[in-house]
Amino acid sequence: MPTAASILKDVFGYDTFRPMQREVIDNVLAGHDSLAVMPTGGGKSLCYQVPALLLDGLTVVVSPLISLMKDQIEQLHAAGVPALTLNSTLTPQQYASNMDKVRRGKVKLLYLAPETLLTPRVMGLLDEVKVSLFTIDEAHCISEWGHDFRPEYRQLVDARQRFPDAVCLALTATATERVREDIQTTLGFSRSNEFLASFNRPNLYIEVARRSNAFNQVLNYLSRYPDQSGIIYCFSRRQVDDLAAKLKAHGLSVRPYHAGLDELARKRNQEAFIRDDVQIIVATIAFGMGINKPNVRFVIHYDLPKSIEEYYQEIGRAGRDGLPAGCLLLYNNADIQKQHYFIDEKEGQQRIVAEKHLEDMVDYAENGSVCRRKPLLNYFGEEYTASACNNCDHCRPANLVRPVPLNASHQVEPKQRQLPRAAAKTERTASHPDTTIPAQKFLSCVKRTGENFGMVYIVNVLTGVRNERIVANKHDDLSTFNIGSELTTPDWIKLARSLINNGYINEEGNFPFEKLTLTDKALTALKQRSPIQVGLSAHITPTPSSSRARVERAAAASDEAYNRALFAVLRQKRKDLADLEGVPPYVIFPDRTLVEMSTYYPQRLTSLKQISGVGKVKLERYGSAFLLTICDFCRSHNLKEISKPQ
Ligand code: ADP
Ligand code: ZN
To answer: How far is it, in rounded angstroms, from Cα 58 to Cα 79?
Structure first.
């Protein structure tokens, strides 16, 4: 008999439940209507997806946004779970065929927008089948006190009455007492069936700063996250357009997103972001509700948000995968004035609510020196008792977190890589083919692209990959574009690693990619055309040794203990597979899975199965492709499998 734990491992590939997941799942399986309140990234989806696979009937999931449904369904399909949607974007044939599958019991999860659910056609269909679980996602939409009230959500109460035998689960990331109460009263839930997870997101580094020289502040911040995904929230459409244009002029991979763009442009920009073709989205608050991208590494607020709830919801979009991520709030007095101006336009209750929200937000931003997590969590009725979180600007200055100033290549002393002595020696004595020409190509490509890009990007330019970023940066026009056919992609990466280890290149930035800059040694070698002998058996970021502390650190998938060169190769593999299937890369595997693969080097199916995120269907579907890549890499780097601590 499958159990919640076996479903978690076999289907989703995860070893342990996140806080509160287990409790919610058990309560639902026991037949109690429940409200689960968890922060964004807390793992709400599994709270209904696991029961859906254990209950014999259909699970209906009401969700307000088509894009979110589509994303969930793609992820479920990748894990081999039969899930479908009925919505207005389907052709009549698709619609009918999906209805038929539901009728024939071929579907475990059916995703519906509330207005679709309420149509007589769908209601009629649901009368014909057994509905076991009725899930209301984004349940705060039911409350006028929430930030996203939707009148059609109110009608879900009647809809729910139509399935008296189904258990009902409401989910939200909005934790204010008032909204929670509202949801429960409206749906008639009892208080004892409320599950409130902690709203602390320990992996987020939280910063607040007065906005002075806004653009430079943003550039400065972005230099900490080269090549990584992030969102910048602005107040107005004009700000979005201006900032996006300026960032683009700086060579950054960026797209705007706001309600003034036509639907097609919005969709295209969002899709490019989700698929890792574009790194940064500058947006009004209209962006983010509909996306589930787990590897967003930073969120910047370029302006003061209207409420703590909104702020928290938005920063919550960073680091859903649990890996380190950063949040920066920039504000000044003009923002406050501006918001007052808009509040003055409102009337009655709405105005009172808006004033209170703004007041709380300003208090939070201006708070002198206590840990940011204290007032933030306090707002959601939670007491943060630790004296310091060690992950906010009040507990640990940002410059101690990631010491990478703007234009790092000009301002920072070359970072000396600490190579194990023995490794460095082998490197020098082993016999290698002459690497002068490819090394020259690589170094000049780093130079010609402005010393602003990571390893994979440079390799893509050299090997003639015409992806969206490269085209946008016009790097397909460079003389170094597509001149690297003598080496394979993994070999280029090995070469790059060797160049780093031999002091030709500095790596700056942090997880998951560095930005490469040239050292004086490289500049001299290029100028004098001197031989560059570095070997292709690169030495990489120190791999976990057998020492216990090391392995434990690796188990936490810290951003230090994994092999970055392998990660880069696996990331490319994932992107290739994702493009082939037309899905976002994270649908194939989340970053954490690749980090674990780059930590333990699994080289057999049985060990691959131990890696987080590798369920049965994904193992079958993608296992051999990833194993092949890992084995290849490990063979050429002489790396052995490390058993993952259970
Ligand atoms: P939410 O809806 O609460 O914002 P999601 O359900 O989208 O969060 O989950 C966020 C991410 O965390 C997803 O990528 C999901 O696969 C992952 N996740 C959820 N539960 C677990 C778990 N128990 N172990 C590992 N990863 C998990
Ligand atoms: Zn703190």
So the answer is: 18
Distance CA 48, CA 29 (A): 10
For 193, the 3-state DSSP assignment is helix
Task: Give the C-alpha separation, 119 to 133, whole Å.
Answer: 19
What is residue 347's DSSP assignment?
-
pTM for this one? Answer: 0.72
Mean residue pLDDT across the chain:
86
DSSP-H helix ranges across 192-283: 214-222, 237-249, 263-274
The CA dihedral of 242, 244, 249, 255, to the nearest 10 degrees, is: -150
The residues, any chain, with a CB within 8 Å of residue 553's CB and separated by 6 or more, are 544, 560, 561
The Å distance, Cα 14 to ligand 1 centre, comes to 10
Compute φ and ψ for 366, nearest 5 degrees. -90, -10
Q: Which residues line ligand 1 (CB under 6 A)?
A: 14, 17-18, 21, 38, 40-46, 292, 294, 320-321, 590
Tokens of 298: 């930073």
The pLDDT confidence band at residue 247, using thresholds 50, 70 and 90, is: very high
| 341: enclosing H helix or E strand | helix 333-343
379-425: pLDDT as tens digits:
888 899 888 899 999 998 765 554 322 222 222 223 333 333 333 33
Which residues have a Cβ under 8 Å from the Cβ of 599 and sit 6 or more positions away?
544, 554, 557, 561, 562, 563, 642
Residue 549's pLDDT band, with cuts at 50, 70 and 90, is very low
* Smallest CA separation from ligand 1 atom 20, residue: 43
Distance 27 CA to ligand 1 centre (A): 19
